[in-house]
Specification:
- With 257 residues, the protein is an alpha+beta fold.
- The chain has two domains: 172 residues, 60s Ribosomal Protein L30, Chain: A (2-Layer Sandwich); 71 residues, Alpha-Beta Complex (CofE-like fold), CATH 3.90.1660.
- The protein is 26% helix and 26% strand.
- The chain is built from six helices and 13 strands.
- The strands form four sheets. A five-stranded mixed β-sheet has the order 2-13-3-9-10.
- Helix 1 packs across helix 5 and helix 3 packs across helix 4.
- The mean pLDDT is 92.
Length: 257
């Protein structure tokens, strides 16, 4: 799950993969990414990382809900009325929820069936047609693996894929992109047992590499620029079998449950 190795610093480029069309259910996302790479005349090197926005993965996989098909429960109606929300959206959120973490002041923080803890269980109504909501992919790691295999085959080199989404953070203002699905790389770098520059043994340092790369890629993807994918070049990422689920802290080690 966690890789033990020293990371060699190197210059990194973050390249937006522009020109992707509006994604619809059934689209071949890997094929669209391959075409974007070819159009930009990029040369893919071993160990490079594709970061793909969750939203287009969900669209391609048909993880869409028409709100006019949703019948809100009394709980959804009551909560929506109290905070001026759409009861249909609240109902969709409740349907995607394994556990309500906090539900107050117009905000729902929920644990999804995957184990992610996030606002609205990942349900989103932005960047989709009116009257529609998107859900998270059913299995982001599987989605990442399928894309990673197609991309590696097309380019003839090992590559990694991260499916990213925007999450809030406890104790910090602002949102960052994190990794939901990971394939072709380790998700974590474990420095425990290694020594710092003063010779002291590290006991607790495990870096969320996949989250860091997802967040970096967002710098060129943005929310308003219609760039739902990016390529990170110049990295020294080793091929690995990590997953997005590696980043979910088990309940027995979570001090805040």
């Amino acid at each position: 799950m966690e890789a033990h190795y020293r990371h060699t610093p190197s210059p990194v480029q973050i390249i937006p993969l522009s020109g992707l069309p509006e994604v619809t259910p059934g689209d071949d996302l890997a094929g669209l990414l391959i075409r974007a790479v070819q159009q930009q005349e990029l040369v893919i090197q071993p160990g490079e990382v594709f970061v793909v926005a969750q939203k287009i993965v969900s669209k391609a996989e048909g993880r869409l809900v028409r709100l006019d098909s949703v019948k809100p429960s009394e709980r959804a109606k009551d909560w929506a009325a109290e905070y001026g929300k759409d009861a249909r959206v609240v109902e969709v959120v409740l349907g995607e929820t394994k556990r309500i973490v906090r539900m107050e002041r117009g905000v729902i923080i929920a644990e999804t069936h995957h184990g992610f803890v996030c606002a609205n269980a990942g349900v989103d109504i932005s960047n989709v047609p009116d009257g529609t909501a998107t859900l998270l992919p059913e299995n982001p790691d599987h989605s990442a693996r399928m894309m990673q295999q197609q991309l590696a085959s097309a380019f003839g080199v090992s590559v990694a894929v991260i499916i990213s989404d925007t999450f809030g953070r406890p104790w910090r203002e602002g949102l960052v992109n994190v990794a939901l699905g990971v394939a072709g790389m380790t998700a974590l770098i474990d420095y425990r047992g290694q020594h710092d520059t003063q010779g002291k043994t590290l006991h607790a340092t495990v870096i969320a590499l996949a989250d860091e790369l997802a967040s970096a890629a967002e710098l060129v993807m943005g929310k308003l620029d219609r760039v739902p994918a990016a390529l990170l070049q110049g990295l020294t990422i080793r091929e690995g079998t990590g997953s997005g689920s590696d980043l979910i802290r088990p309940a027995e080690r979570d001090l805040f449950r």
